[in-house]
């Protein structure tokens, strides 16, 4: 009890690249911590970047903006705010293989616990990002909203993290290569740059790939890869129910096409579709479709 208001057992915090829609953020009371876009030498929290302006700029491919991790200070502010209305915190972060955001969260956790020794804080490396991270955040936040205790929310967050399959289909690997998150797809990016082959690429980034890039396939037509996303989901979900998310950058038609394929081939329990934020756009370019799901 604080100020006459009963505290919640658990507050849930997630990275902005998880792209949880604002109405869901408000409904489930999820704390959002932004990563940063570096544009013409200026640092902007990604939640403050005008997306239409940014996407027009990315179309030109010149003087490409860069990105940086959330700061320790930003996490401290988020944790202090959460401590005002909750007894514990579950803090969810994109794969530590792509950014130092998870490291910053761990350091902020240590500092926060020194000030609030009775609190419990779990910082989770989700080993994925975007549509892979969103279902983990949603599951944890729904449990917390329903009154689950800290141990239950942490356990379920890791269960979903370990079960997530997260697939990424690109219009181009140019931005992925420029941003340094290309990993095993480097030869594909080089082939695209050297010969303009026009092949679209799909990768997987989740617990099964240890939070880094695993090559899935290439095709000349993007819809072929989106069809493969649906096939993979049908194979992995089987007779169960699917819970998932689609995050895209100016690729709504592709996102809706995937949604229709899934509904035709899988028992879809829940599927949230949202437009990605600035860091996702800078790192992946226009046209990316990300799809994360797990079997219920």
Write the layout of secondary structure elements.
Layout: E1 11-15, H1 22-28, E2 30-33, E3 36-39, E4 42-45, H2 51-60, E5 66-68, H3 72-83, E6 88-93, H4 101-115, E7 120-125, H5 133-145, H6 150-163, E8 165-170, H7 174-178, H8 186-195, E9 200-204, E10 214-219, H9 222-237, E11 241-248, H10 252-265, E12 267-275, H11 278-284, E13 289-295
Parallel strand pairs: 1-2, 1-6, 6-7, 11-12
Antiparallel strand pairs: 3-4, 3-5, 8-9, 8-13, 9-10, 11-13
Description:
The protein is an alpha/beta fold and 296 residues long. It has two domains: 11-162, 3-Layer(aba) Sandwich (Rossmann fold); 164-295, Hypothetical Protein Tm841, Chain: A,domain 3 (2-Layer Sandwich), CATH 3.30.1180.10. The protein has eleven helices and 13 strands. It has helices at 22-28, 51-60, 72-83, 101-115, 133-145, 150-163, 174-178, 186-195, 222-237, 252-265, 278-284; strands at residues 11-15, 30-33, 36-39, 42-45, 66-68, 88-93, 120-125, 165-170, 200-204, 214-219, 241-248, 267-275, 289-295. The strands form three sheets. A six-stranded mixed β-sheet has the order 10-9-8-13-11-12, with helices on both faces. The chain has a four-stranded parallel β-sheet with strand order 2-1-6-7, sandwiched between helices. Strands 4-3-5 form a three-stranded antiparallel β-sheet, covered by helices on one side. Helix 5 (133-145) runs antiparallel to helix 6 (150-163) and helix 9 runs parallel beside helix 10 (252-265). The longest helix is centred in the last third of the chain and has 16 residues, at 222-237. It is globular, with a radius of gyration of 19 Å. The relative contact order is 0.16. The mean pLDDT is 92.
């Amino acid at each position: 009890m604080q100020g006459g208001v009963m505290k919640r057992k658990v507050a849930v915090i997630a990275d902005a690249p998880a792209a949880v829609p604002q109405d869901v953020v408000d409904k489930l009371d999820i704390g959002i911590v932004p990563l940063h876009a570096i544009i013409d030498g200026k640092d902007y929290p990604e939640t403050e970047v005008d997306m239409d302006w940014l996407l027009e700029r990315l179309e030109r491919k010149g003087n490409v903006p860069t990105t940086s991790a959330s700061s320790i200070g930003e996490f401290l502010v988020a944790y202090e705010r959460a401590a005002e209305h909750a007894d514990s915190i579950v803090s969810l972060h994109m794969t530590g293989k792509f950014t130092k955001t998870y490291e910053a969260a761990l350091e902020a956790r240590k500092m926060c616990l020194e000030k609030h020794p009775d609190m419990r804080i779990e910082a989770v490396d989700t080993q994925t990002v975007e549509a892979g991270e969103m279902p983990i955040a949603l599951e944890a936040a729904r449990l917390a909203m329903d009154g689950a205790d800290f141990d239950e929310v942490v356990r379920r967050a890791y269960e979903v993290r370990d079960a997530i399959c997260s697939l990424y289909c690109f219009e181009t690997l140019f931005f992925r290569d420029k941003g340094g998150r290309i990993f095993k797809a480097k030869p594909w990016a080089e082939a695209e740059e050297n010969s303009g082959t026009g092949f679209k690429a799909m990768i997987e980034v989740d617990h099964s790939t240890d939070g880094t890039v695993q090559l899935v396939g290439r095709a000349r037509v993007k819809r072929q890869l989106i069809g493969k996303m649906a096939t993979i989901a049908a194979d992995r979900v089987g007779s169960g129910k699917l819970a998932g998310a689609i995050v895209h950058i100016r690729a709504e038609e592709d996102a809706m096409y995937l949604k229709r394929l899934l509904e035709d081939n899988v028992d879809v329990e829940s599927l949230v579709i949202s437009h990605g934020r600035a860091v996702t756009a800078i790192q992946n370019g226009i046209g990316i479709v990300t799809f994360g799901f797990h079997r219920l």
